[in-house]
Amino acid sequence: MRSFCAINKRNLGLYFKDHAAVFFSLLSMLITIAIMVFFLGDLSNNAVLDTISMIPGRGGAEDVATSGKIVFYWISAGILTINAATVTHAFYSNMIKDRTGSTLNSLFVMPIKRPVFVMGYVSGAWIAGCIMSLVTLIVVEAIGYAKGYGIPAAAVQVKMILLIALINFVFAAVLFLFASMVKSASAWSGIGIVLGTLAGFLGGIYFPLGQMSETLAKIVKCFPFIYGTSVFRKVILADIEDGFFCEAPEIMRSEFDKAMGMDFTLFKNELSVGGKIGILVAVGLIFSVLATLYLTYSKKKDR
Hints:
Layout: H1 2-17, H2 19-52, H3 61-91, H4 93-100, H5 103-108, H6 114-146, H7 154-181, H8 185-202, H9 214-220, H10 225-244, H11 250-259, E1 265-266, E2 269-270, H12 273-302
Helix pairs in contact: 1-6, 2-3, 3-6, 3-7, 3-8, 3-10, 6-7, 6-12, 7-10, 7-12, 10-12
């Protein structure tokens, strides 16, 4: 336990002392919010209005305001998933520096079991990711409040915090495995560029899953992004959709959720929120085990 806490404390200290990394993590999040909300929001807003306007008497000023609220939180939910990936990637940059500076080899010779070493790094990335994601959530809700959308209910807040903890664990585990394999800072930086470029697409933010071709949808479902954004959206939009679709046929809400990528199938079976959470938990645990096995094998191979 002492070794675990020592590794955790060291890694968190290195990350938060790197003010540039923390600043650019926040800046990246703010830029993404600005682009999504102020530039791409109108496109999705029109899609929401077109849906509800099919009902006679709907599509008025109140529906326009509610549709803007739906789009805002729909986009923001995706940003929380992207933020978890980019922050944990930035956190592991110090691990790459440790490797290039031979510090990592010194840590490996210490009498620390591989699972403890792995979880020391993964938990550090998880904590850093959770902190930055909570900051993101606060910023998102502050913007929403300023736009007149109010603040989500306390029950929704609790669920969002639990989901933030889960999604950050998943990306902390996944990216740790890749960080264990990468040998240079330039390669890790390249992975970060690819990650930042594809995250919005894989999370179904630029193009909702329901608007993708069948082939693209299958590819997107191979990555954890879409499962994270889908669950976030279902939680934060549930109460809003209850009011928005209260007088609409149930099939309309169902088709809307499918078109916006909040509901989708896997192997021809529709996934529930619990199913998506189960997949995320499984991904996090599997990658943690794979990272442990990889480090153990690599250590023996280097002897």
